[in-house]
Amino acid sequence: MAYDVQRNLNKSTNQSYTYDAIGHAEDISPILTNITPELTLFYSKFGDSEPAKAMNFSWMTKGLFPPQDNAHLEMEDYKFQPGGSIEGLSNNVQFFQKTGMVSDAQNKVQKAYQNEHGSELADLRYDAYTGLAQDIEYMLVNSTNKVDGSTTVQPRSGGVPFFMQQNLIDVTVSTTDNTITSSTETHLATGDICYFIADTMPTGLKDGLYYYVRVDSVNSKKLTIFDTQKGAIENIEDDQATLSAAGTNVKIVTNNVLSLGKKRTYTLDDINNAMEMTSKRGGHPTQAYMSSSKYREFIKLVLATMTSTRKGNEKADATEFATSYQGAFGLINANVHPIYPDNRIDILDLSYWDMKYLDKPHEVSPEKLSKDGTYEKFVIEASLGLKGTQPKASCSIVDIKR
To answer: pTM of the full predicted structure?
Structure first.
């Protein structure tokens, strides 16, 4: 096992004092990510942002805008328009702890085995390092919500699913003027993409197919839907979707999260559709994370599209190549994650995901843990959250059938 710091793994004089104990590190954050990198794929790969200064941390991100039609006269006066778009995002800091204790008698009793790290307490401390890293990874993989803390409620950080879930907004469909009006601001720009879900889809729209929007110049919640980006930008009537029936419980999806409604497993077309939405917003994700069963399906899907023989009569083992897929919108590398659920695949641009620390993982000084019984004890703690700086640079397929 390689470490970022030089550590003494010989038997310590005792574990009660820092200068006699073993298992300490200047900063155990690298130690945590190096202990089990195969189990902590996110924690080992996500960046390290500037420290948090509050329990709820916020950041501003620039919007990803589609291209626009741009043509001017040879001689004309400049016309100035406001530019740029900033969106605020936030998450919470979550507290993590791992504790352990060993009785004085347990430390003294002769063992039939040799302590791997020099003492019973040192072994437990090492296991706590591993456990803390895995607990942080669990949050990153599974947490769908951020929770504000109180004196009786533990604050929780949202993980990747918190940022990569469908942004659903209720809409009403008008068949008289062929428009859709959202219940809240969609923050979409003319030429941007979206798609719709509904109990009954409006006639003129297809389930799972993305469309382009033209935002009304007066009412930003009023949208006209087009089949092409050119049609939306240039307001081409022939490219406009005709809405002849309103449908029921219609919602607009404004981000790159494709839901399969728990009706089927995923296909390469689904991956391409999700990647296309990201690409049209300027994103370039490359790393796909999935469960072992979905990883096996990925290999089968890719193998079905490629030739499995090499030159001559020798058969090729193409499985090693099938872990990557060159689609129409970029190269994707598939990664099996040991604790990933079967119902989602996240395709991420890792440059937009950072850890936000209020307090990096560390061991509480033994001097702060007074000996108040016939045992020795330790505490490893951390406080941190996830910062997804630009979720629209990534994409996801959710609600996949097992």
So the answer is: 0.80
CATH 1.25.40 fits 28-66+88-162+352-388, yes or no: no
- Largest Cα separation within the chain, whole Å, is 93
Helix, strand, coil fractions of the chain, as percent rounded to 5: 25, 30, 50
Q: Mean per-residue pLDDT for 34-43?
A: 79
Q: Where are the domains of the chain?
A: 28-66+88-162+352-388, 167-254
Count of alpha carbons within 13 angstroms of residue 55, beta-carbon side: 10
Task: Tell me the per-residue pLDDT of 174-183, one tens digit each, with 9 for 90 and over.
Answer: 999 999 999 9
Give which of 202, 208, 209 is closest to 247, Cα–Cα.
Answer: 202
User: Strand locations in 254-352, DSSP E?
Assistant: 257-259, 287-290, 324-327, 330-336, 344-348
Query: What CA–CA distance (Å, rounded) separates 103 from 106?
Result: 5
pLDDT at 27: 53
For 16-74, give the DSSP string. SSTTT--S--S-HHHHHHHHSTTT-HHHHHSEE-SPP-SSEEEEEEE--PPP------S
Which residues are within 8 A (CB) of 286 and not within 5 positions of it... i.e. 6 or more apart? 330, 331, 332, 333, 347, 349, 350
Per-residue pLDDT reduced to its tens digit, 93-124? 999 999 988 887 877 776 666 667 667 777 88
Q: What are phi and psi of 321, to 5 degrees?
A: -85, -25
Spatial distance between the Cα atoms of 24 and 204, rounded to a whole number of angstroms: 64
Which candidate, 19, 93, 91, places its Cα nearest to that of 55?
Answer: 93
Tell which residue, 324, 248, 336, 349, has the closest CA to residue 293. Answer: 336
pLDDT, tens digit, for every residue of 41-59?
A: 899 899 888 888 888 888 8
Which CA distances in Å does 215 have to 190, 206, 257?
Answer: 5, 20, 21
Superfamily for the 167-254 domain: Ubiquitin-activating enzyme E1, FCCH domain (2.40.30.180)
| Beta strand pairing call for 251-253 and 168-174 | antiparallel
Cβ pair 347, 56 in contact under 8 A = no
pLDDT tens-digit readout, 203-238: 999 887 889 999 999 999 999 999 999 999 999 999
pLDDT on residue 63? 59
**Per-residue confidence (pLDDT) for residue 205, from 0 to 100:** 92
| Cα 32 to Cα 43: distance, rounded to the nearest angstrom | 9
Strand bridging mode 257-259 / 395-398: parallel
Sign of CA dihedral 268, 272, 278, 284: positive
